[in-house]
Amino acid sequence: MLNFLRYVLATILGLFIFFFLGALIMVGIVAASASKGDVTVAENSVLELKLDKAIVEREQENPFGDLSLGFFSMSSGDGLDQIKASIRRAKTDDNVKGIFLNMRFVDAGMGKLEEIRDELIDFKESGKFIVSYGDMTNEKAYYLSSVADKIYLNPMGTLEFNGISSEVFFFKGTLEKLDIKPEIFKVGDFKSAVEPFFLDKMSEANREQMTSFLNSINDYQLRKIAEARGKTYEELKKVSDEVLVREAEDAKTHGLATDIGYYDEAIDYMKEQIGIESDKKLQLVSLAKYKKVKDAEKSGSAKNRIAVIYAEGDIVDGEGGDDEIGSTRYAEAIRNARMDKKVKAVVLRINSPGGSALASDVMWREIQETRKVKPVIASMSDVAASGGYYMAMGCDTIVAHPNTITGSIGVFGIVPNFEGFFKNKMGITVDRVSTGNHSDMPTVTRAMTPFEKEIVQREINKIYEVFTQKAADGRGMSQDELKKFASGRVWSGIEAKERNLVDVHGGLEKAIEIAAARVGIEDDYRIKELPRRKTFLEEMLGESGSQVKERAVKAELGQLYPMYQMYKKVENMQGIQTRMPYELIIQ
Q1: 452: part of which helix (H) or strand (E)?
Q2: What is the pLDDT of residues 434-479, one digit of tens each?
């Protein structure tokens, strides 16, 4: 009887899941079909940018993007590619009279912010207006808003303008409580990715490098804001350091806002600029809608392609997921670009803190082979450090933003010893039979012997020597000269250019421009994006289960979710790593 009930319940559950997924697929097909139709924009419209989703390099196809079913949200991040394309399209769209930046908090790295801001500045050359409104505005959002013609701040609102910072979590105390002893192997005084496992605060070397690159980024952005607002760097540095903007009126007093007003007042101002009567509705076009507007026919010869290979996420061995740089998948993408006769040049777009040393080297090799037959240009986004720099260092030219985070040329490895945890915390003991003194190496159930430690450290040293030699060759420097800037040290894009670690400051378009010029095709080309992204249907059928689980965990853990992410990254690490500090979050 019980077995019968189990079968009945299992059948009911299976039918429920079948019909639920079937309904989602049908809605997706309908939504996808609808999205393919031409979207029209009314006259005298304004493009509204909220940028309230995480901004990723490339937008994923998702017909459910605006749906939300509790923790099972189908919302995806906004693609930097689509944001820039929409701003560019609005510049020449006669129906769009301006842009409304209606933002609170922007979830994007510094490199992506720079590219959006540059597009906004270019948009203003059309003579159209940009108006910003905020009630609670963080520094990233304000960095974009600073280019606006009018900046409205709610009378009861707040504007964060007190500099940038970054926090590092340390797990030494946790490991001691759990009786877990990590064996640390590294090369480089500044290779701080391992510090959280054996220190309870930053080393002096790590504090030095973080202070240096954070100040470099902060000073750069203050100068850009000062230029946009007609202020001096010294004035804004004083405002920031002394936290002189505490209330809305303070922002206007110090020239960071042009008007203290409510949302409706910002709307009324735009109506006035367009010539719409005050009692009429202003047509605000959302980014979600505007990015579906059909572009003009692509110009350029179909025989000339520039391949843009988007490499975003942690570097891992094998295929990897869509949010990872899997060496197998990306080596194939680089190889395909090399073998494609229509592809005349390659741009490698990198946004990665690094990862597997082996995977990084596999992709480096494919880049070297490709350079023999066509130019390869690296474009650094928010971060291209350690393994990310490993990918870039072999390219013909490296393009980075002044506020890109890069460098971190160093290597590390961690071998945890769980013997004490198993025995003292779990009551588990381990015994073994081996054919040799080190047959069980590597193992996490006993302490390593001095001989075994020496073997691992020698391997770390070897990889560091290979890394620095290849970097030196790529940069046209001696190995000894390059090592002065290595040791795992992280640099801003400004600092990196001063040390010949990058060549040019600029964004993705600058890298594409350089690539086109190298092969003499200027504007006569089209872009080919690699690797191929999975369709929404492929994503939903292939990974819906893991995505549901991930969203459920995120909903349950709340603010503790970043800690869970760190744990998962450590769990997934295999082999020797070339990466920067785990979660370098600038806020």
Answers
A1: helix 450-475
A2: 898 888 888 889 999 999 999 999 999 999 999 999 999 999 999 9
C-alpha to C-alpha distance for 257 and 288, rounded to whole angstroms: 28
Confidence class for position 40, pLDDT limits 50, 70, 90: confident
DSSP 395-434: SSEEEE-TT-EEE---EEEEEEE-HHIIIIIT--------
Out of 192, 216, 327, 386, pick the active-site residue.
386
Strands in 181-187's sheet, in edge-to-edge order, are: 181-187, 411-417, 577-579, 354-356, 314-316, 324-326
DSSP state of 531: S
Give the Cα separation of 242 and 253 in Å (integer): 15
**CB-CB contact of 35 with 290 (8 Å):** no
* CA nearest neighbour of 270 among 404, 150, 393: 150
* Cα–Cα distance for residue pair 318/587, rounded to 1 Å: 33
- CA–CA distance, 386 with 468 (Å, rounded to integer): 11
- Catalytic residue status for 191: yes
CA separation (Å) from 395 to 371, 389, 475, 511, 571? 7, 10, 9, 11, 31
pLDDT digits (tens, 9 = 90+) for 183-198: 999 887 887 888 998 9
Closest by CA to 140, choosing from 55, 254, 247, is 55
Distances in Å between the Cα of 445 and the Cα atoms of 50, 415, 441, 552, 572 are 51, 10, 10, 32, 18
381 belongs to the catalytic site: no
Would you kindly state where each structural domain of the chain is located, as residue ranges? Answer: 45-162+243-291, 305-409+470-533+545-579
Catalytic residue, from 191, 344, 470, 483: name it. 191
Which class does domain 305-409+470-533+545-579 fall in? alpha beta
Q: Assess whether pLDDT exceeds 50 at residue 68.
A: no
Tell me the pLDDT tens digit for each residue of 519-556.
999 888 999 999 987 665 555 555 544 555 555 665 55
Prediction pTM value: 0.85
Provide the token pair at 562.
């970043």
Asked if domains 45-162+243-291 and 305-409+470-533+545-579 share a fold, the reply is yes
Domain 45-162+243-291 carries which CATH code?
A: 3.90.226.10
